[in-house]
């Protein structure tokens, strides 16, 4: 179940998208994450700044915007069987 703030954003997106000729199925959007993701990605490229801002907020609330993955460098491996010491 979605909270009231998310539902309000979905309603705004529906109305603003309708103005530019895109019809959104809100029931499907709330049930299918893949549909929501593709629809919101498509809407994030429109020229209406208000719509884009709401789309970004929705993507954040629905968990579609993740934290960037940082590359981790592997630690250098030491050879276990090799003797490392000094000569006497």
Entry summary:
The protein is mainly alpha-helical and 88 residues long.
Task: Give me the secondary-structure topology.
Elements lengths: L3 H16 L6 H6 L1 H11 L5 H13 L27
Helix pairs in contact: 1-4, 3-4
Description:
The protein has helices at residues 4-19, 26-31, 33-43, 49-61. Helix 1 runs antiparallel to helix 4. It is 52% helix and 0% strand. The protein is mostly helical and 88 residues long. The protein starts with a helix and ends in a 27-residue tail after the last helix. It has 4 helices and no strands. The model has no long low-confidence stretch (mean pLDDT 84). The radius of gyration is 24 Å and the shape is rod-shaped.
List the main descriptive attributes of the protein structure presented here.
88 residues, rod-shaped, mainly alpha, 4 helices
Shape: rod-shaped
Strand content: under 5%
Helix residue percentage:
40-55%
Low-confidence runs of at least 5 consecutive residues: none
**Helix and strand element order:** HHHH
Described by strand count, sense and barrel closure, the largest sheet is: none
Q: Which secondary-structure class do the elements indicate?
A: mainly alpha
Which whole number gives the mean pLDDT?
A: 84
- Give the distance, in angstroms, between the N- and C-terminal Cα atoms: 74 Å
Strand segment tally: 0
Report Rg: 24 Å
Total DSSP helices: 4
């Amino acid at each position: 179940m979605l909270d009231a703030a998310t539902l309000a954003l979905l309603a705004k997106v529906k109305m603003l998208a309708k103005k530019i000729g895109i019809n959104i199925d809100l029931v499907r959007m709330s049930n299918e994450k893949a549909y929501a993701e593709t629809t919101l990605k498509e809407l994030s490229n429109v020229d209406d700044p208000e719509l884009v801002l709401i789309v970004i907020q929705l993507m954040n609330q629905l968990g579609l915007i993740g934290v960037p993955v940082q590359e981790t460098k592997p630690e250098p491996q030491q050879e276990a069987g090799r003797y490392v010491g000094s000569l006497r």
